[in-house]
Design a protein that fits this description.
alpha/beta, Rossmann fold, six-stranded mixed β-sheet, four-stranded antiparallel β-sheet, 38% helix
Length: 238
């Protein structure tokens, strides 16, 4: 693996002093698509929130491009090139698609740059261009998820953090969303994906980490994890 763009070193983190993750360590190389998989409540979202700067670990370190970002806040990590698409989409429901997207570019002052970003996301998601004036709350769950991902791309991130994309979506839509993630990764954006639909996530990822009760219990290439009897039994019902 080339030098990691993201390094998480032995972080312990939780809420109100109660630990949720216990010594998580992981690496993501430039250009990779890496999945963190596991059951609901395993600590996946807490890990993502810590990387994004929405919460800070009790101990351990997080490095992005060699820079220590452990204590940085979310508005500072986004300026460095990290974009977080949270679980549950969190769109501004009364605003239009285009307004939601433009809010994703809040760190940019150059209108031409914002227009370029809009062009790029509309190329990825042509349906959003056709519906750009539509109010977000009137869209289906799958369409809203596309808007959330597109909004995350508006800051032109080097690292895109995607949290539980499949939540509340029909299986056919999950497939479309996963295809979109692969397309984004092919444009050169490094992706860290958190997902409880283990098989679907590992099928598109280069590598994966399995998290259980706040600890990494297995890691390897996607093929190794998909072939693992433990993973198949615990998460795929095989």
């Amino acid at each position: 693996m080339t030098d990691p763009i993201l390094e998480v070193q032995d972080i312990h983190c939780g809420y109100d002093g109660v630990p949720v993750i216990h010594g998580i360590s992981l690496e993501v190389a430039q250009g990779e698509l890496v999945a963190i998989v596991g059951a609901n409540g395993a600590g996946k979202t807490t890990t993502m929130r810590s990387i994004a700067g929405l919460m800070h670990p009790f101990s351990g370190k997080i490095f992005f491009n060699g820079k220590d970002i452990t204590r940085l806040k979310a508005h500072e990590t986004i300026k460095l090139g990290i974009s977080y698409v949270p679980e549950g989409r969190r769109l501004f429901s009364k605003l239009s698609i285009i307004e939601n997207l433009e809010l994703g570019a809040f760190i940019k002052n150059d209108r031409k740059e914002i227009e370029r970003s809009l062009e790029q996301v509309f190329e990825l998601f042509p349906k959003l261009y056709d519906r750009r004036a539509q109010v977000a709350e009137t869209m289906s769950g799958g369409e809203q998820q596309m808007v959330a991902i597109a909004r995350g791309l508006m800051s032109n991130p080097r690292l895109l953090l995607l949290d539980e994309l499949s939540l509340g979506l029909m299986p056919s839509l999950v497939e479309k969303v996963m295809e979109a993630v692969v397309s984004i990764n092919r444009t050169g954006v490094t992706v860290l994906l958190v997902e409880q639909m283990v098989q679907e996530a590992l099928e598109i990822a280069n590598r994966g980490y399995v998290i259980q009760t706040g600890k990494i219990v297995q890691k390897g290439t996607s093929r190794e994890l998909l072939d693992s009897p433990e993973v198949r039994k615990a998460y795929m019902g095989m």
